[in-house]
Here is the input.
Amino acid sequence: MAFLPASLPLETEVASVLKRYETLLEVAGSTVSQVGLSDLFRDLLQRLKDVGKFDFLNLVLHDPNRKVMRMNVLQALIPVTIPKSHELPIGDSPAGWVWENQKPLLLRNLADESRFSTYIRMIREIGIRTYYVFPLTTAKQAYGAISFGGRQANAYNDLDLKFMEQLVTQIAVAVDDRLTHETLRAYQDQLAGDHERLRLVHDITKTLVSHLDSKELFFQISKCIGRVVRHDYSSLCLHDPASNKFQLRAVDFPPARYLLRKAVVFAPEDSPEGRVLSTHNPLLINRLSIEHFPSQTTQSLLDAGIKSGCWLPLAGRNRFLGTLSVCSLQESAFTQSDLDLLSEVADQVAIAVDNALAFQEIAELRDKLAQEKVYLEDEIRTEHNFEDIIGESSALKRVLQQVEVVARTDSTVMILGETGTGKELIARAIHHLSNRRDRSLVKLNCAAIPTGLVESELFGHEKGAFTGAIAQKIGRVELANKGTLFLDEVGDIPPELQPKLLRVLQEQEFERLGGTRTIHVDARLVVATNRDLDKMVAQREFRQDLYYRLNIFPIQVPPLRERATDIPLLVNFFVNKHARRMGKRIERVPAETMSALSRWHWPGNVRELENVIERALILSQGTVLHVPVTQFKGSPVSTSSMKVQTLEASEKELILRALREANGVIASAAGKLGMKRTTLNSKMHKLHISRSDLFAA
Here is the structure.
């Protein structure tokens, strides 16, 4: 048993060696499982803690660009004050000496070391006394150095040294793998960035093709730029060579959107835009200051918090157009790479802006030619040539004079008159004589549409707004944008929709049924009615404020009985119109027929007269118009002593006769009277005609 005491140190040493090899195996597994270098070194230090003596571990890499040694990873079991990104010149760092000489540096007692004074002092201050540094080298590259430290002097023996050499070999492979992975990932990120930038260029190209309005074009491009180059502010300034001034045309910066409410014009002197104008080169400013650009424009940007930015020239086909500015609330927010990308974008923007300006000039020329066309048409137009408006009576001439006066304005017009007097023709005349004649005249008969569908027809609806709304529908108000909206029978608009129509008149905006987006519209409104809106307002059937907005310029269309001298002209016009369509030849209208037609009171007005002539043409066999005049015999209607009650009684009797002949079918009776079903319903309500009256004695 004498050998036992001598064998104890050997067993301890064997156990220590086994522990080291076990640690090496664990480290080998860790190098495979850990992804990041920090995680790898953190795990390594925890495993070395079981071996003992290892209190400090760091990785220092060589930076070939800056020619320094930079600490990349630092792990310690004691508090440290050394910055993890600490840099030192190669000659002032132990890791630098090891990297240059590719030899280990074994500093067994830092108290005896006089070299590398700055770095040695830092690690001594945290309690490190032994410091071993090994080169981190693979077959491909010398990366830097790995350092081990202990809190005791002469902490490591020969076995520790061999263990560390083996450990460094494994770590070198792992670090090489990680750095290669990071390099590949950097290349992937760069490729992804390049791909995103190419997609940006593609998106901007599509945007340029689809927009000719410079403001809308700019905002769309600003959105595209924001996907690749982060920025807080962007603007488009156009240069006027005549005045040598810049005009701010678009801003994408919410706090400064107010700038566009008024024209912002400024001189180029002492501004970034002026520098770009003089050099025609892009400008990158890392720190915007009033000292370098002493202008009010610069001060406005500084007041808004702008600290850096890129200013790009926009060069057109024949001249300098202006600048595109992309700025940030942070200093040095843009790189040269960003400037290069934005320069490519600016080249495309310049093409688009040049096209947009050319389109604007063409539009202005087109408008000018259109105005000249109207002027020439006015010159050759006869005094009252209103297309299908036939007549020469003084009552009609007064109406046409009113039409000429109000047509040139954008004021709302209310056309009043009995059914069949030609209110729609007056509305069309107002539109054709207005500045909106090149755009649409959109019509809606409010009485001809079921109440539940009026809102959808007038304002449109979104998909799914109600059962059966399988697609989005654009309403008549929106269709009339830049043109004229004609609302016939406006008195029949449901009360619940009247506030919405009032909003269109006052604010020029509305929402579709089922929608949340506010739509702005510029449409002139012309309305017509045969109802007594004053009475409806008094009875709270029509909004008073809406009535006042509609009744800005009323035009009273005279009934046919007040323009009896126009009846022969209308008769001849309708005879020619329908005879040509039917292929008949009518050479004469008997004087007795014309006299009877001229004396009739025409409750259906011009529409009734046209229907009578059309039926007469169907019945006429020869070249003479045959009209059964017995139904038109009666007292002349031109006398001023005729009472309203007499007219109402006559009209009531005529309607009752037609209803009896049609066996009470309103649609058939309306056809006999030459009026619409809705108009007949309205008259029956006004004259208090009920179904029981049909069978009264």
Observations:
- Residues 211-360 form a domain with the Beta-Lactamase fold (CATH 3.30.450.40).
- The chain has four domains: 16-183, 211-360, 394-556, 563-695.
- DSSP finds 22 helices and 21 strands in the chain.
- The radius of gyration is 46 Å.
